[in-house]
Write a structure and sequence with these properties.
single chain; about 200 residues; alpha/beta; five-stranded mixed sheet
């Protein structure tokens, strides 16, 4: 009986050691996204810098230095079909990431169903999401609930902007104005130079 108990104790200790070793190898992922390429506003570089500062303040300098960076610039959040996001999720499923840090929730997703499925998947894998601007932390029940609520408003914002742009383009078409894009067959677009006293440029 003593030998069986000793073997069981050794196995438990080895398993606990393996768990600690595995956890030590797991890293924090910083995800940043912007719909268009530009250096202004909430650029991906600014998002990463702010997330690193948050990591250093709350988890230490080493965690901030070793964080894996995933950047999707020029991709919309209406779908999950983004190369760096999918790469990050592959690392999550492989057990190499224990925490995801992002600047704002809408950097991850602006679709409620996509975000809900993602959050459930991360919860099963024991991975938490932290949004530094909204101060949401999925390691707490209230933080998880607030994330669900915020995802609804993120989708509402995306759909409202899309509707506004669509209505504006329809109005411009009714006024006979060109909506941009490829010029009609037989025509070419030429930028009209803005002269003194004129309000805006024309094509």
């Amino acid at each position: 009986f003593f030998m069986i108990f000793s073997c069981f104790s050794v196995c438990c200790l080895l398993e606990a050691y393996d768990d600690r070793k595995r956890e030590a190898c797991m890293k924090t992922a910083i995800y940043s996204r912007k719909s268009v390429y530009s250096d202004t506003g909430e650029s991906v570089e600014n998002q990463v810098a702010l997330c690193r500062a948050y990591l250093q303040e709350h988890f230490g300098q080493l965690e901030a230095q070793e964080a894996e960076i995933y950047e999707d610039e020029g991709f919309s959040a209406k779908t999950m079909d983004r190369p760096q996001l999918q790469c990050m999720l592959a690392q999550v499923r492989a057990g190499n990431i224990r925490r995801i840090i992002c600047y704002r929730l809408d950097r991850i997703s602006r679709n409620v169903s996509d975000f809900t499925a993602l959050l459930e998947q991360l919860e099963r894998l024991g991975v938490e999401i932290i949004c530094i601007r909204e101060k949401f932390d999925t390691s707490t029940p209230i933080g998880k609930a607030m994330l669900y609520i915020a995802s609804v408003f993120a989708q509402l914002e995306r759909e409202t902007i899309s509707e506004r742009v669509r209505d504006n383009m329809q109005l411009m078409a009714q006024m006979g104005r060109w909506l941009g894009g490829q010029a009609p067959y037989g025509y070419r677009s030429v930028k009209y130079r803005l002269e003194a006293g004129e309000q805006r440029g024309k094509y």
